[in-house]
Amino acid sequence: MEGDEEYNDGNRAFLQALLARGTMTLQEAKPVLASILTVQEGEPVDSVQINQELFDSYLSKAQEALSSLDYDIKNIVHQVTKKRVWAIVNTTSDAMTQLATIHSAEEIAFVKRVLDAMFDKYNSSRLEAMFLDSMQFHKCCRAPAAAPAPEATEDDGEENHPQQSQQLRGLKSSEAETMMQNMVEEGWFERSAEGCYSLSPRALMELRSWLVDTYNDPDAEPGEWQRIKFCKACKDIVTVGQRCAERDCNVRLHDHCAEAFWRTKRDKNCPECTTPWDGKHFVGERAVTETEAYRRSKGHRGSRAGRSSGLMEQIMAPDEEEEEEEGERKSRSNLKTSNSTLDYFQVKPRDVLVLERFPAAYFDTAERQAGIISRHPYWYSCHTYDWDILDEKRPAFCIRRLPPPGPYHSSLLG
C-alpha cells in the first residue's frame, strides 16, 4: 500500500485528524489511516497493515500543505511513555499569531504565571522539578500588583491611560482549575498519576525557543547553570530525566537516551565534569518523589492527597541559599556591564563610584600581588582594606571610590 502522489481527500482527512488531536503517535495513526484507506479503496483495511513508511508519506504531504501557512510538523520522544510523538507547531510568533487564541487575556496571563512557577520558582540547581501540583498552581491565580500608573497631564489623551477595568485581576480558584483542565485537553499540559502538571511534548516543541529566551541567561558564562537544559544525546529539552550529580553541571539525559548514550562511552562518568554518573539524580517529578522525605511520608498509612501536596511544597520550596543565588543571577542579569572593565555611576554629587568586573586573566596577577584572594565556587573575591564588596555573594563585582587605590588597581587594569 502506498499513499497517492497527489494531495487528495485522504490527505485532507488525515491532516484534519492530526489538527483535531494536536499530537499523534504511530499507534494512534494506524486506525485513522486504516479508515481513510478503507474509504479510498472500497474494501476493509486493517490497522495492522499500516506501517511507518505509509505514516511518513502522509506526514510529508501534510507538512507540505502547512508550510505556506507558517506551520510545521515536528516530532519528539515522549519523556515518560518513550513513544515518538508528532505534532503541528507554529513556526512564527508575531502580534497576529499571539492574538489568535480562544483564551482570554486573564487566562493567558495565568498560564504565563504557571510557566514562571515551573521554570523559575521550582527549578533550581538544587532541585529541578519543573512541574506544579494542585496547591502550587492555585497560588498562581492572583495577578501581581500592577505598577502605579503615571500621573495624567493635560496633553495626554485617554488612549494613553487605559481604564482600571483593563487591569488584570487574576482568576478565581474554580476558573484556574478549569483552565488547567482545558490546557490538558488541548494537549499543552500533562497531568500525572500524582496529580502533577508539566509541559506536554507538543508544548516543548512549540515553546522551545521561547523557553530558552525567557528563562536562560544569555550573558551566562560557559558552563554556568541554566534553567532550560538539553539532553546530551538527543539535544531536546529535558524536563523529565537524569542529571549529573554535580549540582552546577548542566549535563542532562533523557531516560530513553541514557542506555544508548552510555554504551558508546568507556566509563560512566559525566562527559563534562567527570563526576561518576549513578542514574539516581533526577529531573522532573522524581526529583521530589524519590527523596527520602517523600517516600517516608507516602509509606505512612492514611496519607492523603492534601498531605502529599503540602509535602511536595516543602521539598520544592527554595531554601535561603537558593534565594540568595537567585538574587545573584537576577542582579547579574539586570546589571549590564560594558565591554570595558569600568562602568561609572553617578550616585550623588561629588560621590562617584566605580564598578569593576575583573576579567579572568587578571586573577592570577591579583593573587600574586595581594595574596588575599579568597576563592568561591563560582567567583573570586578581592578583600583589601581599601575595597568594599558590592555584594559578598557576587564578589567578582567590587565597588570603590575614586581616585584609584594605587598600584593594586593599575596592575589589574594592565
From TrEMBL:
Chief localization: nucleus
Source taxon at top rank: Eukaryota
Coiled coil: none
Reactions listed under catalytic activity: S-ubiquitinyl-[E2 ubiquitin-conjugating enzyme]-L-cysteine + [acceptor protein]-L-lysine = [E2 ubiquitin-conjugating enzyme]-L-cysteine + N(6)-ubiquitinyl-[acceptor protein]-L-lysine
Keyword match Transcription: no
Domain Non-structural maintenance of chromosomes element 1 RING C4HC3-type: 231-273
Subunit comment: Component of the Smc5-Smc6 complex.
Family: Belongs to the NSE1 family.
Function description: Acts in a DNA repair pathway for removal of UV-induced DNA damage that is distinct from classical nucleotide excision repair and in repair of ionizing radiation damage. Functions in homologous recombination repair of DNA double strand breaks and in recovery of stalled replication forks.
Protein name (record): Non-structural maintenance of chromosomes element 1 homolog
Species of provenance: Apiospora rasikravindrae
